[in-house]
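[Q] Does anyone have a clean structure-token version of this?
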Amino acid sequence: MKNEKQNGFSRRQVLRGSSAIAAAGALSASAQAERKRTPFRRAGGSNRVYMQVFLRGAMDGLSAVVPHADGDYYAARPTLAVPIPGAPGGALDLDTFFGLAPAAAPLLTPWSNGHLALVHASGSTDPTRSHFDAFTKMEFGEPNLPPGTVTNGWLARYLIQRAGGATGLLRGVGEGDILPQVLAGAPKTLPVRDLANFLFPGNPFTAQERVDVLSAMYAVQPPPTGPAALDTFASIDLMSTIDFDGREPGNGALYPGSPFGKQLRDAATLIQAQAGVEVITIDYGGWDHHANQGPLDGLMAAMLNDLTRGLEAFYLDMLGSIDDVTLVVQSEFGRRVAQNSSLGTDHGHGNVMMLLGGGISGGQVHGSWPGLAPGQLDFGDLAITTDYRDVVGEILADLHGASPADLDVIFPDHVFTPVGVTV
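[A] Here you go.
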């Protein structure tokens, strides 16, 4: 099995055992029928949305998606490793080599229905182990380029390249107080901390009068200031027509009552409103677990459960239109293979990506496993065998209409290698 993994991950489509059966049962009969009625549509759909969930702080992919058949994992983490399947607190087996941490069990629902894929040993080829350098390199899509080669984020460049066919008033949303760097310079894109309460500030009884005054003032201002201000006012009006609080999630979806759960629920509501939004980003911080990591019953377990419960709820909620959504979960880098003396892990390199959507070739782990023996590591870390740009580039091209010329701009000077993450 280990040699098989050296040459590529298992393509197994069906989970075995009671966990898989329970996950499959989470979908109602009506939801299963809806999936069969809705054929997948290739790139160019008018309502297609790309979502990014960025796990800031370097989430430990070796605890989330466990290489339980690689014995060197257990040698490097004698007290921190997630046990083998079948043991108390053991990993939930996916394909006889990898398994999910018990806290990530909600992922079995989209996995068993072929709508979730994992890409292990992935990340940015930039060697940095600094959070802030890694953020910049990954979000600007320039791991091997001199600083300043590009001045906007790679998702911003995607929106710019696709502007010709765009009709939406608000094309991109960063759910937060500020736009992430990946959307820096994006057209018709705003940071919105709370989609359900995106209102003009101040006294609501005088809001329209003040908007009218400001609109008249900005109407005569040249780009980019004038048009950006007017688009913002119009976007506030647009949001006011969407019932974020009153919509009932579909298919019995139960979002966690956390800030992340609310962000995902609001994102699903915005997508289902078909308001023309093409890109949504969510940042989820706090994954820098140098001490007392707790992948089974500690802080990481709690965060991983919140993350995956939210993803499962979003999946069920969006199931009727899952073909029009791609959600990518990634982090700036992973953690070191060996645990430290504080029962945590330090900054590493390779990590795991999670891909969710109707166009994803799911129910499998993609990529090539490099192994965790000391001689196979990258300065003590999981080596990267899949460039994240190959993954998202393939998704943008196959599912979101990006042409080869677009990809040359989105990720300049990158030679793409097929990964096979789309159907």
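[Q] Thanks! Anything notable?
[A] The longest strand covers residues 49-56.
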